[in-house]
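Per your request, structure below.
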């Protein structure tokens, strides 16, 4: 069991081989781009505009960017 960090989802715990595969798949599908919210360069999926922490704030109703 290990904790992995990914800019799409933040920290998450990996317990099985399936999760590891999913993690690597997500990493492969991700590109380095500037987050629309905080302006930081993050590794997120092509179709995503915000990093995990900004997406979190958006979900909670905060204004980002
Ligand atoms: Zn951000």
């Amino acid at each position: 069991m290990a904790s992995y960090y990914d800019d799409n989802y933040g920290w998450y715990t990996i317990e099985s081989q399936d999760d590891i595969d999913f993690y690597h798949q997500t990493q492969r599908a991700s590109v380095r781009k500037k987050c629309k919210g905080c302006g930081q360069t993050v590794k997120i999926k092509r179709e995503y505009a915000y990093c995990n922490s900004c997406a979190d704030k958006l979900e909670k109703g905060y204004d980002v960017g």
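Residues 35, 37-38, 40, 50-51, 53-54 surround zinc ion (CB under 6 Å).

Regards,
D.
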